[in-house]
Every structure is written in C-alpha cells, then in structure tokens.
Design brief:
seven-stranded mixed sheet; MeTrfase_TrmA_CS; MeTrfase_TrmA_AS; methyltransferase; OB fold (Dihydrolipoamide Acetyltransferase, E2P); S-adenosyl-L-methionine; binds S-adenosylmethionine; TRAM domain-containing protein; six-stranded mixed sheet
C-alpha cells in the first residue's frame, strides 16, 4: 500500500573522511520542546526550538544544496519540527517516575512527530504517579472534563485508543519518553508492518497503521493544528480527506528478514537513523522507495563495501551521505548531475541534489489542485490573470499554471534553482514566465520589471524581443492576482507575511510541507482580511508522519 518515493538520502559509516558526514551524523533532537531558546517568530508555548539547532539545519540544507531532504532523514526534519501538544495539565515532573518504570496507559492521540500521547494521572498534592493499574483505569481522552493532574508520556508505534504497557526511558521537564513493551488492546487498524525494520528504522512512523487510518490521522492532525492556532471550525471549511498518490506500488514483496542479513563488514551499516537514536540501521531494501532505487541501492551498497575493504587502514570517520534519485526510472547518485522529470506533460530539469517534490505519484494531483485553486474566478467573479510563485524552486507551480495566466513570475532564493526554472521555461517553450533570484519578500517591491511574451504572440507562433511586455510586480492588478507560496518547513517569515498583507492579492494558494507552520501563517492571513476557502492534505509521504497540505485563501476584507 505504499507509494514509492523517487529520491532519498542515506547515511553510512565508512573509513574515509567526508564533509557531509559531520552535519548528518552529529545533530539530532527528538523532542525540540526541551530546547532552551525560543524561536523569534510567534510560536505557541510548547513550540520552542534551539536557534543552534536551526543553524545546524541550515548548515545541513546548504551541504545538501538545499535539496529535498526525504522523509527518511528524520534526523534532519526533526531539527525544527513543532511539537504541538496541549500543556494545560502539565506541571513539575512527578517525583516518583523513574527510568525504567513500567506503566499501563491508553493512547489518546498522536503528536505531529508520530508519537502516541498518553496522559498518566498523578496524585494531586505530591506529584507522585498513581499506580499503573490505577493509571490505566483513570486515563481519559476528555482533557477538559477533569482537574486530575496528568503527566504526558510519548510512545512510538502506537495508535490512538490502544492500551499498552510501556517503559519510561527518559524524563524531561514536562513529559517523559517511553518504549512500547506490549500492546494490550490493539486497534482494529493495527497491521503487521511490511518492512522488517519498521520498528527500528527512523524513516517510517506509521507502517503498523492501516493506510486509510494513516490518512484519517493526517486529516485530523491538520484540522487540530488549524484549531490550535485559534481558527474556529466555522472560520474554515472542513479539512478535506487526505489525498492518496495516484498509483500504488507493485513493490510489495515481503522482506521481513532484510534487517537481519547484515554481515560484519568494515563499513558498518548503510541506511537511516534508528528511531530516537543517532545510530544507523542497516537498510538493504526500503519498502517506500521505488523499485529502481532498491535495485541501485543493492549495487551501491556493494560498491561502498568494496571501497571500505580496500581502504580499511584509513582513519575511521563519522560517516557520509548517499543520494539516490530516481528520475523516470534512471537512478542518479551524483548530486550535481541534471535529471529530467515529467509532470503533466511538462519536463522539469534540475540538479539531482536540488529541491524537487519527491513523490512522482502525487505530483500531477498537487499541480492540478494548485492550478484549479489559482484559476478559480476571483472573489469579485473576475478571471485571475497574474500569478506570483513565491519559493518557486525550479518553477513547478509557475510553469504548471502558465497556460492559464497572462503572466507568471517566480521568486526563489537559490540562484541555481532560478537558473533551472528559466531553463525549464525554455525547455517547454513557455514564454510568459519570468523568474527572480532573491528572498521571497523582495518580490512585492521589486524594481526589476517582469518581462514576458503576450498571449497574442503565441498564436502567431512566437515573437521577437520587441513584442515582449514588461510590468513591475507592484503594478499587477491585485484583484486578479494570485500568490502561490510553498515555503520550507519553517513557513513564511514575518517579513514576507507583512509584505504579502500590504500587497493584498485577491488570492493566496499556500502549499506546505509542515501544516503546523502553515496553520500559524493561516491565522495571520485570517486576521488580515482573508478567508480560508479550502484545506487539502496530501499523503505525499505514505508510512511517515509527514503531511503536505494545500490551503486556499481569498481576500474578503480590503
Ligand atoms: C518547499 S520548496 C518549494 C519549491 C517549489 N515550489 C517546488 O514545488 O518545487 C521551498 C523552496 O523555497 C526556497 N526558499 C527558502 N527560503 C526562501 C526565501 N526566503 N525566499 C525565497 N525562496 C526561499 C528553497 O530554496 C526551496 O526551493
């Protein structure tokens, strides 16, 4: 039931030194809430991230040429994910909860990191935890109806509603982490994971959950995130059901023993980080990668092992990172090489290590929905004619929408990606798109006119340079202008949102790979005259906790 993804990065340990290795292997934080420094932008109480960790992430992004960091690299994603839990009943740690305590708990919900949340009742006055038996019977999902003090515990590999035995392995100031010992009352949505490494490998969080329930969980999480940001149910339409990729993997061979076949070579494991650990788990076969990647993976593992054996006298280092990108069935491992991917008939060429959306089985749907949201008549019932694609990467949404608009302009901070976007326009014979290399907020005040070829020329089969039109973005007709945003996981910057607010386009089409920051930005837009028209999650990363989500906003107050 998985949808294979077509690029990923693996870490491995080898004797030779690699500049990638330090960044990949040193930094990890499973629960950002324990960090000391508050983010400068307005996250809620429980959502703090150490600026040092953000810097580490930026370093990693730079090293990977700002390429897509596939979900498998959870150690990268985790640097700045926001843990959205309600802290109303939290207090100082109970004095008696000890490392290796065994408790029986009922799982209430899942965090957006994929961990189950259980709230363990503790004694009113002395902060000591109730006996496990009592905890099991008094745990409740109705947090508003009780004054009972509760202690939050996070548990991996569980499903809401399940009662489990768990063992505490770490205490934090406001919660504890536990290992799952046994599921006492399994959910009817619990299944046997296809991958023998599912409980160990940090890449997937939900393999033990039926795919339909995974999607229902994602839909609910998006709904809750929007509500957590003060957006009441009547202020936004019901979050639509999470969309599944259009094709399913035929790559369903059960390979339960794959994790046990590791032999003792010099090189050590080649794979992903273990759950809640810095250690690597050896992954000879990945069930959520494409068949082409799995074939290439076997080959590259053998090559690396041979290299390691030949270099065995070299001083050991911390490791290195491998990139495997499947573009139309061809796997590229050199991040500087260019690859082609076709989406809805358009060819996108980009460096293998650069950002490009990861799941080819979902991409056509994502582009289609962006296009239909962008092209719907304006709130005044007029056609939308101008499109600004902020955080445009190599031009996916601007180019994908171009045939429906008079002019599209994309802005992107990565100059190489802008070159690719321009190249992709030329490659596809698209003449009404322009691209700017700068930070997104610069677009609204840009003094460089957008240059394009008008539709009337298309019918004549092209124009010479004299027929090019130019217009400053600040002169775009706001009532007919749509701004597409697709920022990194941290969401839009305050500067960008302020500029967007002042620019006041008729519509904002917001694609996000982190609905937590998207919900934060949505609350800003709703507070500044926009109405949420739709919220559509996508299961871009099946079997993992990651959610892609499209939200559409129309300006209703001038
Ligand atoms: C999630 S990707 C989206 C790319 C593109 N929309 C796509 O779907 O292929 C986010 C992009 O934002 C770019 N980016 C990050 N910070 C930016 C900023 N301040 N201004 C403009 N672009 C930025 C990154 O380089 C990356 O290409």
């Amino acid at each position: 039931m998985t949808s294979p993804s077509h690029s990923f990065f693996l870490s491995f340990r080898r004797p030779a030194v690699s500049s990638f290795a330090v960044a990949w292997t040193r930094s990890t934080s499973r629960h950002p809430t324990k960090s000391r420094t508050r983010r400068p932008f307005a996250f809620r109480a429980s959502s703090t991230v150490a600026s040092e960790e953000i810097q580490k992430f930026q370093k990693v992004q730079a090293l990977s040429l700002s390429g897509e960091i596939f979900a498998k690299n959870s150690h990268v994603f985790l640097f700045y994910n926001i843990l959205m839990i309600k802290t109303r009943h939290l207090m100082t740690p109970p004095t008696t909860i000890q490392y290796h305590d065994v408790l029986t708990v009922t799982v209430e919900s899942l965090t957006n990191l994929g961990f189950g949340i259980a709230r363990v009742p503790i004694k009113e006055n002395d902060n000591t935890i109730l006996q496990p038996e009592a905890a099991a019977t008094t745990s409740t999902t109705d947090e508003d109806s009780t004054e009972q003090k509760k202690w939050v515990v996070f548990i991996p590999n569980v499903i809401p509603g399940e009662t489990c035995r768990i063992r505490i392995y770490r205490n934090h100031a406001t919660y504890s982490d536990a290992d799952l010992i046994q599921v006492l009352t399994p959910s009817e949505d619990r299944i046997e994971p296809k991958c023998g490494l599912a409980n160990v490998c940090g890449g997937c969080q939900y393999q033990h959950v039926k795919i339909e329930r995974q999607r229902a969980i994602k839909t609910q999480q998006v709904q809750e995130l929007f509500e957590d940001w003060g957006l009441k149910r009547d202020e936004f339409p019901k979050v639509l059901e999470t969309l599944e990729p259009s094709l399913r993997s035929t790559n369903q061979k059960k390979d339960k023993d794959s994790g046990n076949s590791l032999k003792s070579y010099e090189i050590g494991p080649i794979g992903f980080k273990e759950k809640a650990s810095r250690r690597l788990v050896d992954v000879p076969y990945c069930h959520i990668a494409t068949p082409a990647i799995n074939t290439a993976l076997e080959q590259i593992r053998n090559e690396k092992r041979m290299e390691a054996i030949e270099e065995r006298l070299k001083k050991p280092s911390k490791g290195a990172t491998l990139l495997l990108r499947d573009a139309e069935g061809v796997v590229e491992t050199n991040h500087t090489e260019y690859v082609d991917t076709i989406v809805n008939g358009l060819t996108f060429r980009f460096q293998a290590g650069n950002f490009f959306q990861n799941n080819p089985y979902m991409l056509p749907k994502m582009v289609d929905l962006v296009v239909s949201a962008a092209t719907a008549p304006s709130p005044k019932g007029e056609p939308m004619t101008h499109l600004i694609d902020c955080y445009c990467g190599s031009g996916l949404f601007a180019l994908g929408s171009s045939s429906f608009f008079d002019v599209c302009v994309g802005i992107e901070v990565n100059a190489k990606a802008v070159e690719e976007a321009k190249g992709n326009a030329a490659l596809n014979g698209i003449e009404n798109c322009d691209f700017v290399s700068a930070s997104a907020e610069a677009i609204f005040q840009s003094q460089d006119p957008v240059s394009w070829v008008g539709r009337e020329c298309w019918w004549r089969g092209g124009c010479d340079d004299n027929n090019r039109k130019t217009l400053l973005v600040k002169d775009f007709p706001r009532d007919n202008t749509v701004v597409v945003v697709d920022p990194p996981r941290k969401g839009c910057s305050p500067e960008f949102l302020e500029q967007l607010d002042q620019y006041r386009p008729a519509r904002v089409v917001y694609m996000s790979c982190d609905p937590a920051t998207q919900a934060r930005d949505a609350s800003f837009l709703v507070g500044h005259g926009y109405k949420i028209m739709s919220v559509q999650p996508f299961d871009l990363f099946p079997q993992t906790r990651h959610i892609e989500c499209l939200a559409v906003f129309d300006r209703v107050i001038n």
